[in-house]
Amino acid sequence: MRRSKSSISSEYKIMIVDDEPGIVDSLSVVFKRSGYHMTGLTDPLEAIERIRNEKFDLLILDFLMYPIHGDKVVEKIREFNTDLYILLLTGHKDLAPPLETIKALDIQGYCEKGDRLDQLLLLVESGIKSISQVRTIRKFQEGLNKILQAVPKIYQLQPIDNILEDILAEILPLINSTNAFILVDDITRISIGNNSIYKGIGKYKTEIEDFMEMLDPSLMEHIGSARVNKKSVSLEHEVIIPLMNESQQDIGVIYVEGDDINDGVKLLEIYAGQAASSISNAFLHSLVNIKNDELNITYDQLRERYMDTIEALRLVVDAKDIYTRGHSERVAYFSVKIGQAFGLSQEELELLRISGLFHDVGKVGTSDDILFKSAQLDEKEYEEIKKHPLKGAHILSAVSMFKKVVPIVKCHHERVDGMGYPEGLKKEEIPFMARIIAVADAFDAMISDRHYRTKLNFEEAKSQLLQGTGTQFDEEIINKFIYELNDFDQMVREIATTYE
After folding, report:
1. CATH classification of 305-499 is 3.30.1440.10, yes or no?
2. Domain edges within the chain
C-alpha cells in the first residue's frame, strides 16, 4: 500500500536557521502544514551544536546572518557531518556566495527569499527524495553486509533443523522483523508429494497445531501462489518468498512479517536465494542428521494437521449448501471407479481419491450470494466462480505433500475442446486424472438437485455425458464410465454405506 506524502515527510527532520525570527516562524508554519517535522532557530552557533548532537536530515539556512554567515556555518558543520542535505537562502541572487564556495561546501542548492515559497517547497521535496534514495541505498548496503556475514553460518555442516533456525534468525534483522516461518520440502523422502519441514520464529515458534490455526485460507492461497508462480507475494505487512534451488525448482517458502516490508523485499529475495542453496546443499550431502524419530514425528504431525486443515475447508464448502453436501465424496468415489476400470495402481487410485475429495476446496472463498444463486450467473459472477480451481491449486500448493494433486485440481474444469478454464487446455494437455475428475464431477452434478435446476434421472445424465463426448469430455473415459454405470444401483449402495 502506498504511503501518503504527509506520512513520508514526517519521517524526516528539518532545521531552519535565520537570524530574523519572523522568517523562521513563517517558514515553520508553511512546512509544518505540509507535514514536515521542523525545528526553527535564530542563532547559527546554537544550530551548529544542535546538529552536532542531534540527527537532522535537511538544513535550510540564511546566508547573511549574525554573528557568522551561512557559508561559515556550513564550513563548521562539514567538519563533523558530511551527510546533511543543505539549502541556502539569500535575500537576492547577487548576494549568494560564489558557485565555487557552494560546490566546495557541498551545498545542494540555494533559493531567493520571497513572498512565494513554491520554489523552496519544491527544493525541499526534491531534497527529501534524494535523502530517501540515499537511505535506501545505505540500507541495501547494510543489508548486503548482513547477508555476507550470515551466509557462512547457514552453510555450516549441521542438522537441517539447525540450518532452518539459523536462516530465520539471520533474516529478521534485514527488515527489523520478529516473526517469520519457513516451509521447506525434504527431497530425500517421496510419497504422494514430498514431506515438508516447518520451522517458525517469534509468534510462529509454536507447535504444529497452533501453526495450523494461524493458516487461514487466504494465507494458504498466497503461499501456494508464491510457490506455483515462483514469485514473491507482497502483502501490506507481510511477504512470502519462494525458495528456489540452483535448477530454479521450488523447494519451499519463507514468510516474514514487518512494517518495512516493501523496502526490504529485494534484500529478502537475495537472502532467500542463499538460504535455498544452503538447504539444497544440506540435502545433497546428506547432512540431515536430526534424529530420524523426531523428524518422522514432525513430518507426520505436519502432514496430519495440514490434511485436517484442507479437510476442514472442504467440509466448510460442502456444509454451506444442502444441495452440494456429500458431492466431493461422491466425485472421489466415481473417480476411483473410473480409475479402476483403467487398471490404475493403488497409489494412483489414492491420488485420484484425494483429488476428488479436494477438487472444490477453492470455493471456500467464493461469496455465498454466487454459490447459492438460483438464477443464471452474470458474466462477472461466472468469472468469480471460474477462479476456484486456481484458488484450490494454490491452497494445496502451500505444502509439498499435495504436489501431485495440484495440477489435477487446477485442471478439473478444462474441456477437451479447449473451451474450459482456467487455461483453455485441450485433449492430452489436460492431466489424465483431471479428465477423470471432470467426468465424475459433471455426472454427480447432473444427478443432484441444485439451486438453479432439479436433478436429472439416471438415463438423462448418461445421455448428457454421451452428448459431451469429444467436446467437454474425454471419449475413452466416457466409454469406460458408461460401462461401469451398468452397476449404478450397486454404486449407490456402496456410496451410502461408505459416506452416509
Report:
1. no
2. 5-131, 155-284, 305-499
Q: Model pTM?
A: 0.62
DSSP strands (E only) in 141-209: 180-190, 194-201
Interatomic CA distance for residues 91 and 78, integer angstroms: 23
The domain covering 155-284 belongs, at the CATH homologous superfamily level, to GAF domain (3.30.450.40)
| Phi, psi dihedrals of residue 395, rounded to the nearest 5° | -60, -45
Q: Residue 6 has which C-alpha cell?
A: 504527509
Measured over the CA atoms of residue 47, residue 49, residue 52 and residue 56, the dihedral's sign is negative
Residues whose CB falls within 8 Å of the CB of residue 134, separated by 6 or more in sequence, listed in order: 83
Count other C-beta atoms under 10 Å from residue 182's C-beta: 26
3-class secondary-structure state, position 318: helix
- 12 DSSP assignment: S
**For residue 290, is pLDDT > 60?**
no
pLDDT tens digits, residue range 51-104?
999 999 999 998 888 899 888 999 999 999 988 999 988 866 666 667 777 777
Per the listing, cell 508553511 goes with 30
Mean pLDDT of 424-428: 93
> Phi, psi (5° rounding) for residue 320?
-60, -35
Give the C-alpha distances (Å, rounded to integers) separating 13 from 2, 25, 130, 430: 21, 16, 14, 60
Closest CA to 168 of 68, 272, 323, 262: 272
CATH architecture designation of domain 5-131: 3-Layer(aba) Sandwich (3.40)
- Side by side, which strands form the sheet with 85-90? 37-41, 13-17, 58-62, 85-90, 109-112
Beta bridge pairs of residue 111 = 89
- The grid coordinates listed for 136 are 535506501
Could you give the CA distance from residue 326 to residue 498 in angstroms, rounded to a whole number? 11
